[in-house]
Write a structure and sequence with these properties.
The chain has helices spanning 11-14, 23-26, 32-35, 48-53, 74-82, 204-215, and strands spanning 37-41, 59-63, 86-89, 102-105, 113-119, 122-133, 145-154, 157-161, 168-172, 179-186, 189-193, 196-197, 220-221, 227-228, 266-268, 277-281, 285-291, 296-299, 304-307, 312-316, 324-328, 333-338, 342-347, 350-355, 359-363, 368-370. It is mainly β. Strands 1, 2, 3, 4, 5, 6, 7, 8, 9, 10, 11 and 12 form a 12-stranded mixed sheet that branches. The longest helix has 12 residues, at 204-215.
């Protein structure tokens, strides 16, 4: 049977049941009414604060697109998550507000078939595809392949997230591809990015049931009858998140860019062998001196980030058509495009301008002091 021709059940919580699973396994899961899952569609954002105040609500499924999102709700939602609840997001373009690193894929980058789906009561064009369960999460217990619907969010673009920082993959096309389903722990709760699914095809029902169970604060049923995993909940261990954008996600403010120093001024220390910058240039080798660009502009696809030596260790520039890589001093990486066309470096008192296309990589020294 062609699984992509099965009638789409717009899972976002319009079909939360346990569908085709064996009765013996189905009985191990909680009833839908016990899971406390509530969908929020476009035009219903005004109901969110009431949901967060309701102790029976454990999961909020944010079935809205970027253009519908009210960013003033981000802080309250993060507070609610940190207290031990779960938030589901379906539009990858929103995920940067919650600590993920979105990436937009083209149809020619993965196997797919044109389909239509329904997100929060809105009919959308998109593609059907098959993703593999990857990662060691208990959510993937008993899951092999899943048929998923990816909505078209821009012209021929379909959302996913990079597996970076504390993002944990759930569904991917290959072992090193972006994730079409992933999560990250924040406080005592969890934030999930997920697609719509065909629960009746492949392992879709098992995956959805596992995700609901875990998000609601219950262990996932294993084949031997035990419950696995340490789910979120008011009594769960508090986990300090490490967002992909380099900022700390807090209830008071959620950054979509790397954290910038505040009320500090950058002071260059005297140059010596230990604190010189390096720039590897095609045809010249490595230039050693001081890079004089104060800030460099970097685009991740959904966020504009300013790179400075305070936060960044090095940048590796790729060939045409590939993404550049930023290596932050806190250990995480970001993929995107360096927008500056020229780099400036002072070598032994001589100022040099180097075209970006000639630079393979550069490294900032730790020569910065703050006063």
């Amino acid at each position: 049977m062609d699984t992509l021709k099965i009638a789409l059940l717009a899972l976002g919580l319009t079909a939360l049941g346990h569908a085709q699973m064996a009765e013996s396994l189905k009985s191990e899961f909680h009833k839908e009414s016990e899971l406390g899952a509530k969908p929020v569609a476009a035009g219903e954002l005004g109901t969110i604060k009431g949901m967060m105040a309701d102790p029976a609500v454990r999961i909020i499924a944010l079935q809205v697109l970027k253009e519908d999102m009210d960013e003033s709700l981000v802080g309250p939602l993060v507070t609610w998550v940190q207290a031990g609840h779960s938030l589901w997001i379906y539009d990858a373009r929103i995920t940067s507000l919650f600590g993920f690193q979105p990436v937009m894929m083209k149809k020619n980058q993965f196997t797919n078939k044109d389909e239509k789906g329904n997100l929060g009561g809105r009919s959308m064009e998109g593609v059907g595809t098959v993703a593999l369960a990857m990662g060691n999460s208990p959510i993937n217990t008993g899951v092999g392949q899943v048929s998923a619907f990816l909505p078209k969010v821009n012209e021929d673009e379909y959302g996913a997230v990079n597996v970076t920082a504390d993002t944990q993959p759930l569904l991917r096309f290959t072992y090193n591809a972006p994730a079409v389903a992933a999560y990250r722990r924040e406080g005592r709760g969890m934030i999930v990015f997920k697609p719509l699914l065909w629960p009746e095809a492949l392992s879709g029902d098992r995956f959805q049931s596992n995700l609901l169970e875990f998000s609601a604060g219950f262990g996932v049923p294993a084949l031997d009858g035990t419950k696995v995993g340490k789910p979120p909940g008011p009594s769960a261990e508090y986990i300090q998140g490490h967002p992909a954008n380099g900022a700390t996600v807090t209830p008071a403010a959620v950054n979509t860019t790397a954290a910038q120093p505040r009320n500090d001024r950058v002071v260059a220390l005297p140059m010596n062998a230990e604190n010189k910058d390096e720039m590897e240039v095609i045809g010249e080798g490595t230039l050693v001196g001081q890079i004089t660009n104060e800030k460099l502009s970097f685009e991740t696809g959904t966020a504009s980030v300013k790179l400075t030596r305070v936060e960044v260790d090095r940048v590796e520039l790729s060939t045409v058509g590939q993404l550049d890589t930023v290596y932050w001093r806190d250990g995480h990486t970001s993929k995107g495009l360096l927008m500056d066309k020229k780099l400036e470096i002072d070598v032994n008192g001589e100022s040099r301008t180097v075209e970006k296309k000639l630079v393979k990589k550069f490294r900032w020294s730790r020569e910065t002091a703050q006063q």
